[in-house]
Write a structure and sequence with these properties.
The protein starts with 34 loop residues before the first strand and ends with a strand. By secondary structure, the protein is an alpha/beta fold. α2 crosses α3 and α4 packs across α5. The radius of gyration is 19 Å and the shape is globular. The strands form 2 sheets. Strands 1-2-11-10-3-4-6-5-9 form a 9-stranded mixed sheet, with helices on both faces. The chain has a 3-stranded antiparallel sheet with strand order 8-7-12, covered by helices on one side. 21% of the residues lie in helices and 21% in strands. β10, α5 (254-261) and β11 form a beta-alpha-beta unit. It has one domain: Vaccinia Virus protein VP39 (Rossmann fold, 3-Layer(aba) Sandwich), CATH 3.40.50.150. The protein binds S-adenosylmethionine.
């Protein structure tokens, strides 16, 4: 398991007490995982193969961070340069399957460019999902695009299948100045009445670091790894310990590592080589980002 660097993070060995049986989630038990841990199972498959084989209403939260169709090279099995209509059609296909696998009240998070999430958000409504939030994840080192506004956020859609069955309330620390450590806001004179555990998390997340330092990143993967801090938040907001999280686009396994660490079961697919995910679970050298979130677990 990766090391953690925060006192606030839970015991990395907090795996669920019941042994995980991925076959219990599948309608095709012949589909075999390439890697299993005490809390999860990874399938070296096209996400549609795993999703189609997953039982309806069996998953508590889906988190998806698909390719953005911007011409990135992931490997020979991924074409990240589709016609726009093909990309949207493919998105509809896997999104529809994700929604089918969700339990009533389950949550769907979709991380993508605003350009695609506008369309996918509309599609989720057509599928009967309830809008909760468009979360803006601020980009620290974006590049200007000629003739456009400077892109300063990614979109994280948060929808639920009907009334959410879980809403873990998250508080973030009161913001202080990096230089003088003084508090930045005066909270309209109500500072004294504020919750000592922090302020309510908003739908603009400015504190998600890019994964740049090798301490956090596999040498085998140079791009496209999300911060563990983002996944911690998503999982704490939408699941209880022992719930099941599905990620169709495994990448470097951020969702899987965080789910395991937080005592959630996980299941996921990655179509390309999965060595980086194996390494993530076996290496002692990869750290999680520090999270200062305070989680109040509230039933919705
Ligand atoms: C943006 S990355 C995900 C990164 C991941 N969230 C992380 O933090 O490491 C998208 C991943 O989806 C994989 N992928 C692309 N098409 C796929 C498909 N049809 N089925 C499964 N995985 C796919 C790519 O190989 C890539 O690793």
């Amino acid at each position: 398991m990766p090391k953690t660097t925060s006192q606030q993070q839970p015991d990395p060995m907090s795996v669920p007490s019941q042994k995980f049986d991925p076959a219990g989630l599948l309608t095709k038990p012949e589909l075999l995982p390439v890697f299993v841990t005490p809390g999860g199972a990874l399938f070296n498959e096209d996400c549609l193969t795993l999703l189609r084989a997953t039982k309806s209403e069996s998953i508590d939260t889906v988190f998806a961070d698909p390719p953005f169709n911007i011409g990135k090279k992931y490997g020979s099995r991924v074409n990240d340069n589709l016609l726009e209509s093909e990309y949207v059609e493919w998105g509809h296909e896997w999104i529809r399957e994700c929604v089918r696998t969700l339990k009533p009240g389950g949550a769907f998070f979709l991380y993508n460019l605003p350009k695609w999430n506008v369309l996918f958000g509309t599609y989720l409504v057509e599928l009967g999902m309830d809008f909760r939030h468009w979360i803006a994840i601020s980009i620290k080192f974006g590049l200007p695009i000629p003739g456009r506004l400077y892109p300063a956020h990614y979109s994280l859609l948060y929808y639920t299948k009907g009334k959410p069955k879980m809403f873990g309330k998250v508080r973030t620390p009161i913001e202080t100045c990096r230089h003088c450590s003084g508090e930045i806001k005066d909270y309209g004179g109500h500072r004294g009445a504020m919750n000592p555990n922090g302020v309510n998390l908003t739908d603009v997340w400015t504190d998600i670091p890019p994964v740049r330092h090798w301490k956090f990143k596999s040498k085998k993967r140079s791009a496209n790894q999300l911060s563990t801090k983002l996944l911690e938040r998503v999982i704490n907001i939408s699941t209880h310990p022992g719930d099941v999280v599905l990620d169709p686009f495994g990448g470097s396994g951020t969702t899987f590592a965080v789910a395991e660490q937080l005592g959630r079961y996980w299941i996921g697919s990655e179509i390309e080589n999965c060595d980086v995910i194996f390494e993530r679970f076996r290496s002692e050298d990869l750290h999680h980002h520090v999270s200062s979130d305070y989680v109040e677990s509230l039933a919705a």
